[in-house]
Amino acid sequence: MSCIRGMGKMTLYVTNTIFMLLSIALVALGGYVLRSDWKDFFKPQFVYAIIAGGAFMMIMSCLGCAGARTQKKRFLCPYATVIFMCLCAQLAGAALALNFKGAMDKAKSEGFNSTKFDSATQTAYDYLETQWTVAFVAGGCDFITPSTTAGQFWSTTCTVEDGKYLQTFMNTKCNDDADSYNSCVTSTAGETDANKAFCNCRGAIVDKVEDALGPVTKIAIAAAAFEFFLVIASCALMCQNRKGDVPSQDTTQPLSANQYGQPPHQQQQQQQQQQGAAVPANGANMV
Questions:
Q1: Angle at 144 between CA 163 and CA 182, to 5 degrees
Q2: Are 115 and 135 in contact (CB under 8 A)?
Q3: Which of 36-40, 117-121, 269-273 has the lowest mean pLDDT?
């Protein structure tokens, strides 16, 4: 246990020192963006979220370092509680990501035939289509058919600068599949350009989502495992501090005790009892 406590203490020191440096860097980065021309490229809410996250990390790092230094519950208890809550949130997020990935895999295996979807698959599919529509409209994109480019069945142009990445994705990943195009021509007749583009790109979108969710899920699980060790280390330090606070029983003798470990008044009472016992039974007949 002493080895675990020592390792946990050192881990708390090193980890929270690193996170403190990262938090200072995040706060400084957010402040720099707000004061520079870069603020025009980011939404203010995003920058404020970075600064708030950095400030929160700094507070938790200070609690972790103070807890490792003093081993006091007032520092370690809130630190361990917040870390445990983050652990639970990351595991929940990883489970949702895996569930979403599984739903998309099922939709792709069913050929995106909505009549074969269950409720979970339909919910994930509708969410993906909604987010795609929002990005497509915000980017000012247009669905053009037939395409003038050789080997492509349709093309897309996006007028908004932020939507150029979407234009590149659609023109390079989505519009060279004849089967997908032919099936989408009839199924999306009369629908919006966003629906037509999504119908042709949904296979590539699912592949992109799966490629992104795989590493993110693994990182979240690994971070949760490390956070679990931090919680165990904090609890071990709290238990050690609590054990050290228990007063030990006083086994020393009073300073006024004699060589037999008895206080003077008890010694006097014993001497009186011995003198009374030493008087002979026929002492009254003695002259």
A1: 115
A2: no
A3: 269-273
